[in-house]
Amino acid sequence: MKNTNPIGLFDSGIGGTTIWQEIHKLMPTEDTIFLADQKNAPYGTQTKEAILALSHKNVQYLVDQGCKLVVVACNTATTNAIQELRSSFTIPIIGIEPAIKPASLLTKTSTIGVLATKGTITSDLFTSKLKLYPNVKIIEQIGYNLVTLIESGQLHSQEMKDLLQLYLLPMVEQGMDTLVLGCTHYPYLTPIIKTLIPEHILIIDSGEAVAKHTQKILGEHHLLTPHTNKGNTVFYTNVDPSILQTFAPDDVQVQQIEF
User: Fold this and answer.
1) Residue 119 in contact with residue 143, Cβ under 8 Å?
2) How remote is the C-alpha of 153 from its chain's centroid?
3) What pTM, to 2 d.p., does this model score?
4) DSSP structural state of residue 246
5) Among the options 112, 115, 121, 183, which is catalytic?
C-alpha cells in the first residue's frame, strides 16, 4: 500500500462529512474519498445484518478505489460492524463511537446526555461502553427522524426544532450538563441545539478525536503522505447529489455513482 493513496470515509449519508472536515483540517495534504450511501439512509433503523452487509460493501468499494485506510464515519455502522470489518480487510479501519469518555471527564453534575440513533443505542458495543462509567448518570435518547430530516434537506425546518425540543428538554430537566452527539449527522444541529438548551451545557462530538486517531494510525503504518500540496477530494453518492453538494466544499463536485 502506497502512502500517497487516499484516505477513504463512508457514512449512510451526509453526516460523515463532519468527520471528513476534521480530517481534512488536520491533514490537508492527504487525498480523500468520501462515500455517502444515501440510498440506504438512515442506518439507524436497519437490522444489524443489513448494516453489516452495507458496511462491508462500502469498505470494499473504497478498497477498490485504492484507499490506504478507511474511516467508518458512522456511529451506527461502527457499533454494529467494526469488528467484522476489521477481520475482513487488511487495511487499517477506524471506527467512531459516542464521546462518552471525554464527557464523563468534563461533566460537573455527573450527568451526561447521549443523543444517538436507535441502531447505536441498542447495539451491544454501546451497551458495553456504558458499563465502564458506573459513577456517571447517562441519559440515552434516540433521535428518531433527525437523520431523515437532514438527508431530505429539512435541517432548519420547524419539525426539526420541535423534535429537538422533545428530545432535549427532558434531559435538561434531569440535570444534564454535557450532551454527547452520538451520530455524525448531529453536529450540523449544534447551532439549533444551542438555542434550545442552557448555555452552560457542553456539547461534544467525536470528529476531532477521530481525526487525531486517524493521523496516529497512519503514522504507525508509515502511511502519511509525503505530499505538501493540498490533497485531492472526491465525494460520491448513490442518489441525486444535490443535498450532499450543499455540505461539500465549494471546490468539490459531488459525483453520483451506482453502488
Assistant:
1) no
2) 18
3) 0.92
4) T
5) 183
Active site residue: 9, 35, 69, 74, which one? Answer: 74
Write the pLDDT tens digit of every residue in 122-174: 999 899 999 999 999 999 999 999 999 999 999 999 999 999 999 999 999 99
Helices (DSSP H) in the chain: which residue ranges? 17-26, 48-64, 75-88, 100-106, 118-121, 124-130, 146-151, 158-173, 190-194, 207-220, 242-245
Length of the chain: 259
Cell numbers linked to 110: 455527573
What does the alpha-carbon distance between residue 96 and residue 110 come to, in Å, rounded to a whole number?
23
Cα dist. 16→123, 159, 236 in Å?
19, 23, 12
Report which residue type is found at 127. Answer: T
Q: Which 8-state DSSP code applies to residue 107?
A: -
Instruction: Respond yes or no: is residue 67 known to be catalytic.
Output: no
| pLDDT tens sequence across 47-81 | 999 999 999 999 999 999 999 999 999 999 999 99
DSSP state, residue 76: H
